[in-house]
Structure formats: structure tokens, C-alpha cells
């Protein structure tokens, strides 16, 4: 009620101030009200952001509902872990994203504890506008996938996230005993770029604009991940 009263006061000042009152005076009155009640502005911004997130979530759920009967679209040729053809846990991630690295252990533990119920599907979503190594890291991991070493490479990239770069990509590949000629050819190939772009296109279709982004059995998960909520979703599948 207090917020409404203050907003009405501002509207009244704008709509019904005397013609003789200078614009500068009116502006000062409005600014003073804002100074006296900054919490109202914050509350309004928070409400706007909440409404925006809710609308975005509804849109995302709508797209996911349409894709629910097309598991091959959601899985594609992406690396998977856990059970086969069970509840899908989609992870859209960026190897340079610190929050993705922070979420990785929780995801790993959840999948290990529910290895017969969950199929983890990794999707690349490099935020190239803010992470200059995201695309290169994604393509390097894709090359490792071609030699059946994606998850090992994935774990190493997140473990050494602060060292992302050409030296690290080679070092990890050698540590995993990958065939280096094939690795270098694959990671720099049009096929690697196309595979990453396919994941990005799917993410954009869903309406993803940040990482990490998780979907369990068609339901978008809030962050940070809550294992109890995830387990409850599994019980309803």
C-alpha cells in the first residue's frame, strides 16, 4: 500500500501541478520523494524483473513442451552420461563461465546418485560476447568427444578454468593420450563449429540468455541447483 501511495503522489504531482510551478521545482519535488523512499524504486525494479523472468520462464516451458516428444532433437549427437533413454537432464554450459564450473560438482554428484534414472545431456552454449575462450574450449572438448574422452576433457577444463587457452587445450589432450593430429584437425574443423552452433541454436530456440541453464524432464531448474527439488521431479516422471 505504501508503494502505491507514493506512486500516486508522483502521478498527482505530474498531472495536477499548477501551471505557474517551474519545471525545475517540480523535478526537485519528485527527486526528493525518491530520495526519501529509495526502497520504492528498488521494489518496483524487483517486481519488474520478477514479472520479466516469469514471462521468460513461461515461454521457455512452452518451447520445451513442444520438444518433449522429440527427444532426438534434445539429445542429438551430444555427449551423454548416466542411464539411456531416461529422464533427460539438459545442461547448457560455457567452459569459461565461473557459475558453470561451480555447478559442475553438484551435477556430477546428482547424476552419479541417480545413474539409473537420469540421462545427462551436455549442450554447448559459449557466451562469445563476454568469454573469448568459450568457443575454442567448446571445440576442443568436441574434438575430445570424437575420441570418446569428452567427460574427462570437460572435467579438466573446468578444473583449470583460469588457464583456458591454446597451451591448456594441448596439455589436456596429451594428458588424456588423445591422437594429437586428429585432435587438432577435429577441433579446427567446420564440423566442430557446426556442432557447437547447433547447440546454440537449440538454446536460443528455448530462450536461453545465460549459463548455466538446466532442464530436468522438461522443467527448467532454478539456480543454485536444489537436489531435493530435482529428486521430487524424478518421482513424478
From TrEMBL:
<feature type="signal peptide">
    <location>
        <begin position="1"/>
        <end position="23"/>
    </location>
</feature>
<feature type="domain" description="Thioredoxin">
    <location>
        <begin position="31"/>
        <end position="201"/>
    </location>
</feature>
<keyword id="KW-0732">Signal</keyword>
<keyword id="KW-0676">Redox-active center</keyword>
<protein>
    <recommendedName>
        <fullName>Thioredoxin domain-containing protein</fullName>
    </recommendedName>
</protein>
<dbReference type="InterPro" id="IPR013766">
    <property type="entry name" value="Thioredoxin_domain"/>
</dbReference>
<dbReference type="Pfam" id="PF13462">
    <property type="entry name" value="Thioredoxin_4"/>
</dbReference>
<comment type="similarity">
    <text>Belongs to the thioredoxin family. DsbA subfamily.</text>
</comment>
<keyword id="KW-0560">Oxidoreductase</keyword>
<dbReference type="GO" id="GO:0016491">
    <property type="term" value="F:oxidoreductase activity"/>
</dbReference>
<dbReference type="InterPro" id="IPR036249">
    <property type="entry name" value="Thioredoxin-like_sf"/>
</dbReference>
<dbReference type="InterPro" id="IPR012336">
    <property type="entry name" value="Thioredoxin-like_fold"/>
</dbReference>
<keyword id="KW-1015">Disulfide bond</keyword>
